[in-house]
């Protein structure tokens, strides 16, 4: 019996037991190639991801899973993901988009949940610091990361409802680990972060937010407002959602990492840039809540289903029914 106990403890140490309960596993262990993402369709909803927000080219142009693309600290993960956006990566707009959506029957919008993920860039096909990117976001944008915004376009900026709350440099060849601390009951959200193999630490306390998800609107990926060359590569690893308490260790907690995350707090609060477009009497097709209703090159519905109104989220490129 003693021998079995030691074996069990060894297994738990090697796999990195979670502190909380995993309610959705977004790891890429079951995706050996880009073709595995194509197994999902509206008629065949299999796997852990929906894959429909992408460009017209083969999936291998936008998604490439591989062991070389993961954060080595995630010891239980076999593969990470290299995600590429370019001028062909347009979906339902002229913006560059490559986004995976959780495929699950679990409720991802109740209680206190932690949305975990890690991001990296390199010096090859580096993200443009002059163009706005929306990264790992919810459809309503109640919380998200942005890049290419604010006083320092080279920072990853954490936002609540379009307001900057915290930021960090986004240096090449460094893994940045995050967990959105979302309490859907009390309607607050906070942030945990670290780099490489260091354990997560709280970098921002929970603050009021209009927390909501229908469990199918967390976008694992990147949306870039402006469509132009050159292409960009983003690296994603360690994606999962857990019910608290939070797991702060990455993998088995033994992979070395840097000692701290370089953080900055916004010194001058910026007012929201969202502009409300006055509602008119709808005539013709109407867009549903959180759908696009305007912007450069948009030819779809410009009226929203009541009581939603069309708001300029990123003028002049993108407007959304809210």
From TrEMBL:
Q: Which parts of the sequence belong to the CBM1 domain?
A: 285-322
Provide one Gene Ontology biological process annotation.
carbohydrate metabolic process
Instruction: Provide this UniProt record's keywords sorted from A to Z.
Output: Signal
Q: Give the GO cellular component terms, alphabetically.
A: extracellular region
> One Pfam family, short name please?
CBM_1
Q: Which SMART domains match?
A: fCBD
Tell me where the signal peptide lies: 1-19
For this UniProt entry, the molecular function terms from Gene Ontology, in alphabetical order, are: cellulose binding
Question: Which chain regions cross the lipid bilayer?
Answer: none
* PANTHER family per record: GH131_N DOMAIN-CONTAINING PROTEIN, GLYCOSIDE HYDROLASE 131 CATALYTIC N-TERMINAL DOMAIN-CONTAINING PROTEIN
Identify this protein by name: CBM1 domain-containing protein
Q: Which organism is it from?
A: Coprinellus micaceus
């Amino acid at each position: 019996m003693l021998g079995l106990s030691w074996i069990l403890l060894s297994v738990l140490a090697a796999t990195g037991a979670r502190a909380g309960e995993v309610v959705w596993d977004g790891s890429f262990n079951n995706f050996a190639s880009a073709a595995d993402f194509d197994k999902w369709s509206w008629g065949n909803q299999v796997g852990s991801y929906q894959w429909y927000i992408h460009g017209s080219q083969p999936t291998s142009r936008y998604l490439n899973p591989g062991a070389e693309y993961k954060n080595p600290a995630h010891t239980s993960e076999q593969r990470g993901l290299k995600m590429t956006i370019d001028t062909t990566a347009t979906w339902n707009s002229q913006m560059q988009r490559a986004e995976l959506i959780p495929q699950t029957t679990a409720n991802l919008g109740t209680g206190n949940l932690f949305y975990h993920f890690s991001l990296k860039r390199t010096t090859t096909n580096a993200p443009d610091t002059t163009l706005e990117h929306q990264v790992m976001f919810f459809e309503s944008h109640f919380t998200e990361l942005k890049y290419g915004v604010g006083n320092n376009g080279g920072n990853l900026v954490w936002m609540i409802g379009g307001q900057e709350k915290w930021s960090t440099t986004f240096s090449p060849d460094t893994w940045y680990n995050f967990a959105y601390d979302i309490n859907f009951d009390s309607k607050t959200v906070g942030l945990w972060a670290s780099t490489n193999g260091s354990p997560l630490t709280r970098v921002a306390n929970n603050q009021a937010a209009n927390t909501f998800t229908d469990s199918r609107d967390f976008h694992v990926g990147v949306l870039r407002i402006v469509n132009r060359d050159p292409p960009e590569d983003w690296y994603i690893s360690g994606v999962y959602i857990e019910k608290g308490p939070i797991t702060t260790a990455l993998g088995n907690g033994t992979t070395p990492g840097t000692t701290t995350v370089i953080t900055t707090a916004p010194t001058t609060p910026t007012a929201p840039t969202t502009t409300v477009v006055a509602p008119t009497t709808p005539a013709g097709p109407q867009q549903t809540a959180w759908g696009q209703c305007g912007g450069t090159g948009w030819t779809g519905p410009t009226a929203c289903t009541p009581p939603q109104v069309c708001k300029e989220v990123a003028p002049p490129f993108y407007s959304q029914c809210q």
